[in-house]
Amino acid sequence: MKNWFILALLFIYPLIGFSQSKIKVACVGNSITAGAGVEAGKNYPDQLQVLLGDTYDVENYGISGRTLLKKGDFPYWKEAKYQEVLQWQPDIVVIKLGTNDSKPQNWQHKAEFKKDYIAFVKSFKKLPSHPKVYICKPMPAYYENFKINPGVIKNEILPLIETIAKKTKVKVIDLYTPMLGKDALAPDGIHPNAEGDAVLANEVYKEIK
């Protein structure tokens, strides 16, 4: 009888551990992801966590001012958080980069944007966890601020995102179109407030679910 009890426990414990494991979602990005200017708990990854619920673990890997371009002024590639997110072995990766790449000092290297982005996506896809990767179209820049160029985002970066998604076979989350005309949700023209972050979180949520 005692042996049967031990065998039952050996069978049940792995199932308990499996049922309690959460789906790991890594939000990779710049200051918009990090939540610049937004009160605690209201950035888009935090709001995404609420929408997805307790079966998901959403982690914010946003860093202000970072670029996708390796030759940008502050490349995400060189950050410790980049190594941290790779080591975390996420199940889902949401990449929202490109806004800071539109700055003149960065966009002078635009010929390398596609190549660098493809390499960035591949660095996640080859992880042992084989995450599902999404790349986001940046939200609009409503006017030029912090040297961020609205025209470059709209006319050059958005089409490149589509091309990169096809090349890497990943899905695009459009955060540009849902934010058109919502200037009031980004007081400085670039960074969304809590209500704007709710729009971003909802768009990401819809794609993940």
From TrEMBL:
Coiled coil: none annotated. It comes from the Bacteria. One of its GO terms (molecular function) is phosphatidylcholine lysophospholipase activity. Residues 27-198 form the SGNH hydrolase-type esterase domain. This is Sialate O-acetylesterase. It comes from Adhaeribacter radiodurans.
